[in-house]
Design a protein that fits this description.
globular, single chain, alpha/beta, Rossmann fold, 9 strands, 289 residues
Amino acid sequence: MIIAFIGLGNMGLPMATNSIKAGFTVHAYNRSAGKAKSIEALGATVFATVEEAVSEAAIVVTMLSDDHAVSEVSDKLVVAMKKGSIHVSMSTIGAATSTELAAKFEAQQLYYISAPVLGRPPAAEAKLLFILVSGKAEAKEKAQTLLAAMSQRVFDYGEDPAIAHTVKLMMNYMIFVITEMLSEVMLMAEKSGIDKQTFLDTMTSTVFGAPVIKTYGGLIVQENDNPNGFKTSLASKDLRLALEAAARNHTTLPLGTIIQHHFKEIIAAQGGDKDVTLLISHLRRLNPN
């Protein structure tokens, strides 16, 4: 089976790599040709255009930065994909965008399924992602083996393509709340003369042993920028989408407003490329004494 990957960034590249290792034939396109060289060395065929990359594929995977990028690429996909093939949309985008795209693909006798992921780049490399999926049952069945090749577990949320993306936004929102919480308490520990690593060990060995606490707590204690991490600009985009989704459903996320304020301050002062776990550095600057 030919799988086309559009987007070979920090997440897309290891996901495509694991697909090759699982025995799939991979066709690929990436705006930056340099990033495609490593996947080409593993046996993928790299194309100069999106249209060429997807023309023979049974499944097309997109892993892109935002709604605009996914919509722009989708305009090319709907005219280049062969009838009956499947677009597996794995980017973090808004629920409304996924609904619009699903209708656009269906009108061209194509399938669209939402399949955003939970996990950072190291999890993608180790095939330890969790995938949230929703869309037509027949399309999900055809994509099942591919999704298994990139993940440790797939959670099925039914046929509405908006649902999986809404769940992803809610999950990311909780990650941002935890990042804010950990940054605040770690800064308090620091200012109180408490060893942060010992404090983290106490948390994760007692009542806060969840993987997200261990992962993000460790990154916050280390306080090193991670070039393959979760950019603050993307975190701010995801949080904006979560706040918009809540508003459309007549609810609010009060903590999200506070966290978004911090994200925007970081982006204004330093740009958006820093890892989201460096929020503690920003809080320290706000509380210098």
